[in-house]
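Here is the promised in-class demo. Please do not try to memorize the tokens; focus on the logic of going from shape to residues.
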């Protein structure tokens, strides 16, 4: 079920370690706008496509990289007196969950179960 929740909001989930680093390169408001746009686009395809390997790899990447990325980027931004992006970078792993539109977790969970062979392919929710 946890992979289904992550897949439902995949761009926001995967953005946790990436967005703080992007704040070093681009204006923070453009980065957040891009994440919001990606989540809106993702909401159109998240039910029709599931990828077990991508979900597993993203989980490992995010869990190990989000806090070092957030803290390191925040320190750099604070040193360069960019306090707003520094605060957003520091708390981005917590804030990213508020960006994606809600979805039907059960539909995604069933698609994952079908993909790994846990549920027959003709099963419906």
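The designed amino acids, position by position:
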């Amino acid at each position: 079920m946890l992979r289904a929740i992550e897949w439902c909001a995949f761009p926001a989930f995967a953005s946790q370690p990436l967005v703080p680093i992007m704040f070093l390169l681009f204006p923070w408001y453009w980065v957040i706008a891009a994440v919001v746009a990606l989540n809106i686009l993702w909401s159109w395809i998240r039910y029709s496509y599931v990828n077990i390997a991508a979900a597993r790899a993203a989980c490992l990447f995010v869990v190990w990289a989000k806090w070092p990325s957030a803290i390191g980027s925040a320190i750099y931004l604070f040193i360069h007196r960019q306090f707003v992006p520094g605060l957003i970078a520091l708390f981005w792993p917590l804030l990213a969950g508020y960006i994606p539109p809600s979805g039907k977790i059960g539909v995604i969970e069933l698609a994952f179960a079908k993909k790994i062979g846990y549920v027959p392919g003709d099963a419906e929710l």
